[in-house]
Structures are given as structure tokens and as C-alpha cells.
Design goal:
The complex is a heterodimer of chains A (178) and B (709).
Chain A (H helix, E strand, L loop, with lengths): L3 E9 L2 E7 L4 E4 L5 E6 L3 E5 L11 E3 L8 H4 L5 E5 L6 E7 L4 E3 L5 E2 L6 E5 L7 E10 L10 E6 L10 E4 L4 E4 L1
Antiparallel strand pairs in A: 1-2, 2-5, 3-4, 3-6, 7-11, 8-9, 8-10, 8-12, 12-13, 14-15
Chain B lengths: L1 E2 L7 E6 L7 E5 L4 E6 L4 E6 L6 E9 L2 E5 L9 E2 L5 E5 L6 E6 L8 E7 L2 E6 L1 H6 L1 E11 L5 E8 L6 E2 L11 E4 L13 E6 L5 E7 L1 E2 L3 E4 L19 E5 L2 E6 L32 E6 L4 E10 L6 E14 L2 E13 L7 E7 L11 E3 L3 E4 L7 E10 L13 E6 L4 E2 L7 E7 L5 E7 L8 E7 L13 E4 L10 E7 L7 E10 L4 E2 L6 E4 L12 E4 L2 E4 L11 E6 L2 E6 L2 E6 L2 E8 L5 E6 L3 E4 L11 E5 L2 E6 L2 E7 L4 E4 L1 E3 L13 E3 L3 E8 L4 E9 L2 E4 L3 E4 L2
Parallel strand pairs in B: 12-26, 47-58, 48-52, 53-57
Antiparallel strand pairs in B: 1-9, 2-3, 2-13, 4-11, 5-10, 6-7, 6-11, 7-8, 9-10, 13-24, 14-23, 14-25, 15-21, 16-20, 17-18, 17-21, 19-20, 22-24, 25-26, 27-28, 27-30, 30-31, 31-32, 33-34, 34-37, 35-36, 35-38, 38-39, 38-40, 41-42, 43-44, 44-45, 45-46, 46-47, 49-50, 50-51, 51-52, 54-55, 55-56, 56-57
The chains are: A mainly beta (178), B mainly beta (709).
Chain lengths: 178, 709
């Protein structure tokens, strides 16, 4: 892959600095498939991210010689829900099945702007190799809620960093990954 | 304007009911899925022609009741008028691509609706087990003539996925595995990485359909299980054969019964009866349905096949054309779709090793294997070597991670791992801020492999933190900045109660290997500030009575008498406290509404400077007799009150001096350095220190007035 990350330094909790090389201009993509930088000559970027174990952030750099589309764009790992407006709706609530119950994906329902014809909601990057299930509930001003059909999608995306242990074996002079 | 449900829009493809239905549902298959941006609220997009290229199509209002459409990469077609409640077809500039839309209401049209066209993908995935065993399904649809006139020459056929090539450099044998080679550039022609290939003779006759599991720029690798796909028979190829990349499907049609229904399959794996399937690339070689009358159905089948052992990944399983003639004009459109095939990766992880630098991801990984993985590294001849390790994993979509963060370890020339110690934080201090807050400051001099996180341990019970068991607050050190070499943290803690005994220890941690420094020295502090006073004068008035507002003794009496014995009392009232012996007032403090106060001393009394010493009581007031009292601090006599002589005796007197602010709700407070006598301030809802006894001196917190009473 043309355009290569050459160093990754965690600056502190929730901040990581990436440095890359290649032939400018560069396009840099995040895991959700969105461009972080486009047509740039910059060669480094600091990314903010959740500071949790194995949440090592990833970027994908494409330089001027890149031939194939970026993997993060082909396999973004997010889903976009889109639905047609419902007349009489006050708001829409997007829910996700967590394996046991339907849970609202955000505390605030999406306002049913009467001047909009279509509504969209985009998820965060979802767990890899798993089925994600969503539904949209219509809420009216009287507090009624609609029934809702659910839709599901099997998520396949670029894998995250694995949870492994790296150790040194001084007896065999080997790096051991388990 | 093109009329909806006529001409190019005369024939639609609909889903069929599942199970025993065999009927057409009301769900039309839309060849293109689109994500909308922009806004044209009254317009509903019903269908976009499948022949549109990927990209962004645009609908643009040209007037309050008109609009126009442009397919991706094309110019706008003619403007069309659409009324409320009307369906219309808007055609793009090339006259080929189009969209059908419906106008919901009469609100004036305006704005633009952008439609990003995306390839439809089945929301499910083939499992690894299904892939290994091979998978075949028969999907049923219904072609429906929703126009007012019959359509003829209805047919379905396969659409290649890329341009064809000749097998002029190598051909398959009569059976078994092999390869097809060409002198053309398959990569430049954008052939799929794996999939079906249709082999035709130079005369256009189908020779065989194969599955190739891999391709190079010039070669298709065909496994044994990839021979004879979709009912074809393995046959030896020829150098003049023409090879097409095709989807993994064949098409068929079925004439419905008098009720417009076709057969239903109990199981999608079942083979439909009496349906022939075709893989031809033209209508004449496809599944021909002939004429479909207005308002009538015709069954449409798609046979999908995945050979045993096919590679995992996303594959285009359907790419078919449906043609028909309406009003003398031949139209055709395409339907396509992808499916994910899961494959348990043969090797699950890839490892890159860097030596004295980050891993080089432009090079091949140092190991590709399932876990556990062991990679030998040569220790340095002398000194130390820093080893960086990055591990990526593969998933069943045959994707390898793109993470680049690495872990690090250091080895010496003996091959032993070196623990790079981290310098201990220095100059740790705690300082009082306002309102019970405390500032913690510490410095860290960065190591060659520096720490990046502060670990802050704090206890508020006067005991030293135990870094082995206490839970620290973790704070990022951030990027090294500033004028000096140190990284400094300055962090506000609290708020704490006045008098809290704080102890703090700071460590530095390096996240890359969780190495932690030794403990810093212990910083200690007694909190000497408190939260601001509440507002003055707050209270509720009930008729003529003033009710004390805010916190304070809920049951504060109008007068409280503390009997110290021998007729010595302290009388407490809201805003007033006095020390008396019998009827004689020795000292009295009175507060005003704004918190100021005045201390009254009897006219005949004197303040006498003289040393008072000796052991006293542990209590603030020691009553020896009705004539001899002492004010004490820490068990020592500091002030003598000679009642008969009317003298208050002490080494030093400080009039109207600052006394300690004691936010304790008690009449007396004993600290290490002083003993406070307090008066209840009803306006502020708190006690106030008015008289303070310290070693060798008496401090009056308010001005002193001598008067007769």
C-alpha cells in the first residue's frame, strides 16, 4: 500500500501521533471511512480517541501512487440508517439491539424537522464480524410510539489491534506473541 | 418528460413472497441504493436505474413544480414538471439513466437532493462452513408489467464484470486444476481478485464457466473444485478463447399460473421445477420470457453458486440485465448485488518487528501465523537494543488490521530484558487555594524512554497513601512544552473540609510497557481554607419572628447558658456571647448584621500585661473559683481573669487582630496553635471566632470598647 505510516507515538491518554511517508499529496482516512486529511502535504497527524485497552487508533494513508481504494472506505465498519419522514412525527428514536433489549443509541431523539424529506443516522464503528441490528421508532407529540421493523447487517471491517501479550524470552532470544 | 410506469419504466422487478406464497409482493427491487444529502422534502425517490455508474446523482429543482436529474458523471436531463400526488420519471442527460420519483405534497419545490449511489450488499454473510461445503441458492423474483400496455422481448441475461480477454498465453486442460493465461493486463482491466470466469470459443459458444481463486496481472488460477460451474462441463481451452469475468449466477424465467403466481420453494436450496437457467451474455442466450401483458407478472429466477472452498471476501454474486420492448423501443436495466463470504483465516496474525526504531510496515511482516508466535531477535554485540513489536490480526473477511501502534522492550548484549527505569517525580508540593481547594504540583524530568502519565495518590485522613493498594488518578502528561527540561503537573484537588489532613504521592508511568517510577516523597498539608460564606441576611420572616436561614443548629435556642461552675457562665445568644461571673459581665461580643462586631469590656476592668503560666485544664476555660478563672490553650494557662481585681492578665493582648477563620459549628474550637471562642452569627448562619487564645497572648477579633455595662 502506497503511503506508509512510519511511526506511531501515544502522547498521552487519548492522543496518538502518526507520522507517514510517501509521495505527496496524501489522503488520510479514519476507521469510519471518513477523510481526516485530503490532498495534503502534511506528514503527521495527532488523533484524539478513547483511552481504553486495545483501542489503539488506526489511520490509513494513501499517497499519490495509490491504486486501490482505501480499505477503510471499502470496509468502513459503520452503518448508515436512512428513512423517509413520517407526517405527524415529532421525533425519531434510533435503537440498537444489544443482545437482550432495544437500547436508544443516543439520549436525545432525532428531531423530525418538517422541512426534511429523508433522515439519516450513522453509527460509530461497530464490532467486527458481528451482526448489528437497528430500528427506528416514530414519536409523536402525544407521546405515542410507533411499532418498528428492525434491520440488521453483518459487519465486516478492518480488524482492530488484537489483544495479545508480547514478551521476551531470554532463554531463546525470541519475541513471543500470545 | 418520461411517464412513470411506462416506456423505460414499464417493467419492474419485485420481491416474491417467501415460503408457500410464490406471489409478487409490493416491494420493488431498487437496482440502486442511495444515501441522500441536501434536501427536497416533498420528493420521494422510488427507483434509480441500475445502469447508473457509482457516484453521486443529483436531483435539482428548476421551479416550484419542476426539476431535473443528472446521473453520476452526466449532465442534467430536461426539466420535468411534477404535480402533487404524481409519479414521474426524470431522465439524465445521456437519455439512458433515469429515476422515478413521487411528489408528496404541494409545497413549492426547491433545493437539491444529492444521491450517493452504493452497491447493494446482502446484510448476511456466508459462513465459513457454508463456504467450505459449497453453497447454492435459488432466488425468486417477479417481473411485473406495471404499464398500461404489453411489453415484448422480455429477457434476462448476465452482464460481465469487466472487459474480456483472450486466453492466448495458457489454457485449462480437459479437467482438474490449472490456469488461464493472457497477454493482457487483468489488473488494468479491473478484473475481480477471484470469482467466475466464462470461457467462450472464438465463435461465441460457451465452453465452460470456472471459478478462479486467485489472479495475477495475467493469470487466473483455477482449482479442481472450480471447474464446471453452473452446470457446465469441464473442457480443454483454446488460445483463441474469449474469457469474461462474470457474476456467480445464472438466470431463469417461469411462466406464472392464471393467478399470477409461480412455484414456491420450501427451502431456498431446493431446485425449482421446470426452470432452465442460462448464463448467456445476450438476450438471445439468456432466459427469454417473451411478452408480458399489462398488469401481469412473470417469474424471474436467479441461481447463485459458490463452489466448495471458494475464497472469502466480498463477491458480486448477481449482475444481470433485464430487457423489454415497450412502445417499439428496447430498454434494459441491470440488477446487481454482493455478498460477503466468510473464511476462517489460515493464519490469524501478522507481526512486524523493529530494532532500534519503529516497525517498517512497507516490508513484509516478520511472521504470519496463528498464535503463539515466536520470532528470534539477535541481541546487540554491546549495549542495548530496543525492540518494537506490532501485531495485526486477520478476520473472516480476509482483511488484515491496519494498526500501527507498537509495544517496546529493551534487551542487552546478554539477551536479557532491560527494565528502563523511570525517574521519580520531584518537587511535589501541596498548597492551599481558596474555598477548600488545594493545588498539587510535581515535576518529572523525562527519560530517554519517557513516561507519559501521572499517577496521583491522595488520602485525606492524615495517613500516607499506599501506592500498592490505593487507586490513583491518572492524568496524561501531554506534550513536552515549556521553558525548562521538566514536565510539570499542577492540579487542583478538592474541595476539602477545613482542617483536612492531606497526604499525596506522585508516580510517573510509561504506557507503552506500563513501567512505573518509584514513589515521590510524600507531600502533606492541612487544609486551611473553606468554602465562601453564605449570603448575609438570608432568612424567612414569619410575622415578627426572624428565622435563622441556612445551615446551623436547627434548634438554636434564643439563649444558651454554659455553666462552668462557681457561678461562672458563658451565655450564648444569636449574635452575642458573653463571659459572666454571676451578674457581672467580664467580656461580651455583639455582632452586627454585616458580620462586624464589637467586644465590650466592663469600664472598671483592666488589661494587664504579665506572664501567665502553669498547667491548666484541657478545656478552654478553667474555673478555679468564682474569683479566679483561666483561659487555656493546649492544657496551659494563658490568660488569668482576676474577678475581684477586675483584671484580665496575659503576656500580650492583640486588639482587633485577625483571628483564624474556624468554620466549625461549635462554640469552642481547639487547634494546635490556638483555641477559639465563637459566637453564632444568625445573619451568616455560622459561628465566628471572636476571641482567640494562643501561647502567650490573647487576641480580640473585634474592636474593644470599655463601658459601664
Amino acid at each position: 500500500m502506497a503511503g506508509m505510516v512510519t511511526d506511531t507515538v501515544r502522547l498521552g491518554s487519548g492522543l496518538t501521533k502518526f507520522t507517514w511517508s510517501g509521495s505527496a499529496p496524501f489522503d488520510v482516512y479514519g476507521e469510519d471511512g471518513e477523510a481526516l486529511l485530503s490532498n495534503t502535504s502534511l506528514t503527521e497527524l495527532i488523533v484524539s480517541h478513547p483511552d481504553t485497552p486495545n483501542a489503539a487508533p488506526m489511520i490509513e494513508v494513501q499517497d499519490a501512487t495509490a491504486a486501490a481504494p482505501p480499505q477503510f472506505v471499502l470496509w468502513p465498519g459503520t452503518v448508515a440508517l436512512q428513512w423517509r419522514r413520517r407526517l405527524g412525527a415529532l421525533a425519531y428514536r434510533v435503537e440498537q439491539w444489544n443482545g437482550a433489549e432495544w437500547v436508544a443509541v443516543s439520549p436525545t431523539p432525532i428531531y423530525a424537522d418538517p422541512l426534511r424529506g429523508y433522515f439519516q443516522w450513522r453509527s460509530r464503528v461497530l464490532p467486527d464480524m458481528a451482526t448489528a441490528q437497528f430500528r427506528v421508532v416514530v414519536l409523536d407529540a402525544a407521546g405515542n410510539e410507533s411499532a418498528a421493523d428492525s434491520t440488521s447487517c453483518f459487519i465486516a471491517r478492518v480488524p482492530s489491534a488484537p489483544a495479545v501479550t508480547v514478551a521476551w524470552n531470554s532463554s531463546t532470544n525470541e519475541v513471543e506473541v500470545s | 418528460m418520461a411517464t412513470a410506469f411506462a416506456g423505460r419504466d414499464a417493467l419492474g422487478t419485485y420481491e416474491c413472497g417467501t415460503g408457500a406464497d410464490g406471489i409478487r409482493t409490493g416491494f420493488e427491487v431498487n437496482p440502486q441504493a442511495a444515501l441522500f444529502s441536501g434536501n427536497m422534502p416533498g420528493i420521494v425517490i422510488e427507483r434509480i436505474s441500475g445502469r447508473c455508474a457509482a457516484g453521486i446523482a443529483t436531483l435539482e429543482a428548476t421551479g416550484e413544480n419542476s426539476l431535473r436529474f443528472a446521473a453520476p458523471g452526466d449532465t442534467f436531463g430536461a426539466s420535468v414538471t411534477v404535480a402533487s400526488g404524481e409519479h414521474i420519471v426524470a431522465v439524465s442527460g445521456d437519455g439512458v439513466n433515469w429515476c422515478r420519483l413521487y411528489r408528496e405534497d404541494a409545497d413549492p419545490l426547491g433545493g437539491t437532493l444529492s444521491m450517493r449511489l452504493v452497491t447493494a450488499r446482502d446484510g448476511t454473510a456466508l459462513s465459513n462452513a457454508e463456504r467450505e461445503a459449497g453453497w447454492e441458492r435459488y432466488l425468486q423474483f417477479m417481473l411485473y408489467n406495471h404499464s398500461a400496455a404489453a411489453v415484448s422481448d422480455v429477457a434476462a441475461y448476465i452482464v460481465p464484470l469487466a472487459a474480456s480477454v483472450e486466453s492466448d498465453a495458457g489454457q485449462l486442460g480437459a479437467s482438474g486444476a490449472g490456469s488461464i493465461e493472457t497477454t493482457e493486463d487483468l489488473d488494468a482491466l479491473e478484473w475481480p481478485a477471484a470469482g467466475f470466469a466464462r470461457i467462450e470459443t472464438s465463435g461465441g459458444t460457451l465452453r465452460e464457466i470456472v471459478y478462479y481463486e486467485e489472479r495475477t496481472d495475467t493469470e487466473l488460477i483455477v482449482p479442481t473444485d472450480g471447474r464446471g460451474m453452473l452446470g457446465t462441463t469441464p473442457a480443454a481451452g483454446s488460445a483463441t478463447d474469449v474469457i469474461y469475468p462474470v457474476p456467480m449466477c445464472a438466470v431463469g424465467v417461469e411462466t406464472p399460473d392464471s393467478d399470477g403466481k409461480i412455484q414456491a420453494l420450501a427451502d431456498p436450496e431446493d431446485v425449482p421445477s421446470g426452470v432452465d437457467f442460462f448464463t448467456g451474455l445476450e438476450a438471445a442466450d439468456g432466459a427469454e420470457a417473451g411478452t408480458v401483458a399489462a398488469g401481469h407478472n412473470h417469474g424471474f429466477w436467479v441461481r447463485v453458486q459458490v463452489p466448495p472452498g471458494a475464497l472469502g471476501g466480498r463477491v458480486k454474486i448477481i449482475n444481470v440485465a433485464v430487457q423489454f420492448r415497450a412502445g417499439g423501443t428496447l430498454y434494459w436495466d441491470t440488477i446487481s448485488g454482493e455478498r460477503l463470504i466468510r473464511e476462517t483465516p489460515g493464519t490469524s496474525h501478522a507481526v512486524w518487528i523493529g530494532e532500534d526504531g519503529p516497525p517498517d510496515f512497507s516490508a513484509a511482516p516478520d511472521a504470519i501465523s496463528n498464535l503463539p508466535i515466536a520470532i528470534g531477535v539477535t541481541p546487540p554485540v554491546s549495549g542495548e537494543k530496543r525492540i518494537t513489536v506490532c501485531v495485526r490480526q486477520a478476520n473472516e473477511a480476509v482483511l488484515l488490521g491496519l494498526n500501527t501502534e507498537y509495544s517496546a522492550l529493551v534487551i542487552d548484549s546478554d539477551g536479557d530484558e532491560v527494565t528502563r527505569e523511570i525517574r521519580t517525580p520531584e518537587n511535589i508540593s501541596l498548597q492551599n487555594l481558596h474555598g477548600g481547594y488545594v493545588s498539587l504540583v510535581a515535576d518529572y524530568l523525562p527519560d530517554a524512554d519517557p513516561a507519559d502519565t501521572w499517577l496521583i495518590f491522595v488520602r485525606d485522613d492524615g495517613t500516607d497513601p499506599d501506592t500498592g493498594s490505593d487507586t490513583p488518578v491518572e492524568v496524561s502528561m501531554g506534550v513536552l512544552q515549556g521553558l525548562g527540561p521538566y514536565i510539570t503537573t499542577s492540579r487542583d484537588l478538592g474541595p476539602y473540609d477545613w482542617g483536612t489532613e492531606l497526604r499525596a504521592i506522585v508516580q510517573a508511568k510509561r504506557s507503552i510497557d506500563d513501567e512505573v517510577s518509584a514513589d515521590s516523597a510524600v507531600a502533606s498539608l492541612t487544609v486551611a481554607t473553606r468554602a465562601p460564606d453564605r449570603v448575609h441576611g438570608l432568612g424567612m420572616f414569619l410575622k415578627d419572628q426572624f428565622s435563622i436561614g441556612g445551615a446551623g443548629p436547627d434548634d438554636f435556642e434564643l439563649e444558651t447558658v454554659i455553666d462552668l461552675g462557681d457561678d461562672v457562665v458563658i451565655v450564648q445568644k444569636p449574635g452575642e456571647t458573653s463571659l459572666r461571673v454571676g451578674a457581672e459581665v467580664i467580656l461580651r461580643v455583639v455582632l452586627s448584621t454585616n458580620g462586624d462586631g464589637r467586644i465590650y469590656l466592663g469600664e472598671a476592668w483592666d488589661l494587664v500585661n504579665d506572664t501567665v503560666s502553669g498547667a491548666g485544664s484541657a478545656d478552654p476555660v478553667e474555673v478555679v473559683s468564682a474569683d479566679e478563672l483561666y483561659l487555656c490553650h493546649s492544657g496551659d494557662r494563658v490568660v488569668k481573669i482576676d474577678v475581684s481585681a477586675q483584671e484580665i492578665i496575659c503576656d500580650e493582648f492583640h486588639i482587633w487582630n485577625a483571628v483564624e477563620d474556624v468554620p466549625v459549628d461549635e462554640a469552642f474550637y481547639q487547634a494546635d496553635d490556638f483555641t477559639a471562642f465563637q459566637v453564632w452569627d444568625p445573619h451568616a448562619g455560622r459561628w465566628r471566632n471572636w476571641l482567640q487564645v494562643e501561647a502567650g497572648r490573647l487576641v480580640f477579633g473585634y474592636p474593644v470598647t470599655q463601658r459601664l455595662t
